Amino acid sequence: MLDIPLWKRILIWGVVLVALALAVPNLAYDRVERHNDALAALEGGAPSTPELEADLALWPSVLPSSLVNLGLDLRGGAHLLAEVRVEDVYTARMDALWPELRDALRDARDEVGPIRRTDAPAGELRVQLGEASGMARAVELARGLGGPVVSLTGVGSASLEARGEGDVLIVSLSEAEKIATDDRTMQQSVEIVRRRVDEAGTREPTIQRQGENRILIQVPGVGSAQELKDLIGTTARLTFHPVITRTSDPEARVDARQLLLPSMDEEGAYYILEETPVVTGDDLVDSQPGFDAQNGHPNVSFRFNPHGARLFGEYTSANVGAPFAIVLDNEVISAPTIRQAITGGSGQITGSFTVESSTQLAVLLRAGALPAEMTFLEERTIGPELGADSIAAGRIAAIVAFVAVLLFMQASYGLFGLFANIALLMNVAMIFGILSLVGATLTLPGIAGIVLTIGMAVDANVLVFERIREELKTARGPARAIELGYDRAMSAIVDANITTFLIAVILFTLGSGPVKGFAVTLAIGIITSVFTALYVTRVMVVTWFERARPKKIEV
């Protein structure tokens, strides 16, 4: 019997209404976006201003405010392809190993004699021994410092290789450790780039690893590629070094294991520092922009974790009256004198900052230092005008496809075609509602997926209506024909759409960027089209039939 329980009807229409409500904010995209930005600013602690309150009032807070995020090709933005210099990490690892190796060799002075670190190629640590006969012992000690390789696949062989050439001990990373280090470096670089972009409030960026040592970065809404480079291209490595002396000679001679670095604020001033830092920005847990209590100038406050606080406290306690340098990316920001022990684990960085530069530095420090320098191989700025043209072209294509399908269904199936057309309108709205709910990014290929879905959405209705036509020839009355038409067409509809859905899943899994955008809209469109064809149109047909009670129907 042709009947749908009341609870099913309420559930079906409830799902439709929720999806439509989620899609409505996209009709006032600019207003809702300004409302969301103002709300995010206020929740982030920004002071309330008339401009923010005005933007907040552009959209009622009680209504849904989720939007479909527009991709780079629709909104405009910046595209970068960066190469990470993973070799820099090898050198940093060797520099960090030197104090430990030095102490181990000094404990074995009777066997290896006096030691001296010598110049070495990148990624190697070379130590000259006073007694070449102690090389075997030195190699043993060096290998013992490395431990096993720890990678994503588990724990492997030794992480250090050590050998002797005459009286020179040569230490380097093993091949297995280099591979593991490369993976960790790339993962860390991708995560730090993502955190820096997210800290700046940019919505829905695409940041992913490509190949062995490259990162693809696409950020919608950014004004230019240079702006994006300024945000993520800075290493932002913060270190604290003992100061040996200050000079105005840019060619001043420095000993091994010393650094000659320029001052950021004082033109013509240089500092000679000990190369090994007391503590690094790796031990920072927070950094915030602020203002100096004495002169009101912008500054950046920072806070160390317990390990960094202990190291910093021990050094400042032992060196009261001595200067130390705060170094950011090989420039001395400040070189204050330690007036008392700093044991609280926090401090301030002062300099010639503006509000914007102090905020950006705080973001960079809070996100962490890039483990290695990045070289930008490719950069493109996509203007919003091009995105607007893409949206206009996609809108025209969607409207043409939509009108053509509506006319075809109306001409072919009459009243039943009208039901299918209403369901098609709901289907497109539901697609945008789901995209808004999950925060998906709509790209130009995504629009192509929606246009394709418009054609596919009525395919299930065509199968149902054709089946009803056949059942009208043999069934006992129109009610029975409608019921059999839906029941017997269901298996064919479900089977056909499952295969297409699996293709969308494969595209999403194996594809990237625009391909994923196409796969997302295609998969969502398949789900909504099956739902509207098998349930929404059925509810409409049954409701009409219950009210009209026709003796005969035409499909």
Q: What attributes characterize this protein structure?
A:
about 550 residues, 4-stranded antiparallel sheet, 15 helices, 21 strands, about 55% helix, elongated
Describe the protein in words.
With 555 residues, the chain is of the alpha+beta class. It is built from 15 helices and 21 strands. It has helices at residues 6-23, 29-43, 50-56, 72-75, 87-107, 109-112, 135-146, 175-199, 225-232, 306-318, 355-367, 384-438, 444-474, 478-510, 514-548; strands spanning 69-70, 77-84, 115-118, 124-129, 148-151, 154-158, 160-165, 168-173, 206-210, 214-220, 238-247, 258-262, 270-274, 279-280, 284-291, 298-304, 324-328, 331-334, 346-349, 374-382, 441-442. The strands form 6 sheets. Strands 11, 12, 13, 14, 17 and 18 form a 6-stranded antiparallel sheet that branches. Helix 5 (87-107) crosses helix 7.
Task: Provide the fold topology.
Blueprint lengths: L5 H18 L5 H15 L6 H7 L12 E2 L1 H4 L1 E8 L2 H21 L1 H4 L2 E4 L5 E6 L5 H12 L1 E4 L2 E5 L1 E6 L2 E6 L1 H25 L6 E5 L3 E7 L4 H8 L5 E10 L10 E5 L7 E5 L4 E2 L3 E8 L6 E7 L1 H13 L5 E5 L2 E4 L11 E4 L5 H13 L6 E9 L1 H55 L2 E2 L1 H31 L3 H33 L3 H35 L7
Parallel strand pairs: 1-21
Antiparallel strand pairs: 2-10, 2-20, 3-4, 4-8, 5-6, 7-8, 9-10, 11-13, 11-14, 11-17, 12-13, 15-16, 16-19, 17-18
Helix pairs in contact: 1-12, 2-3, 5-7, 8-11, 12-13, 12-15, 13-14, 13-15, 14-15
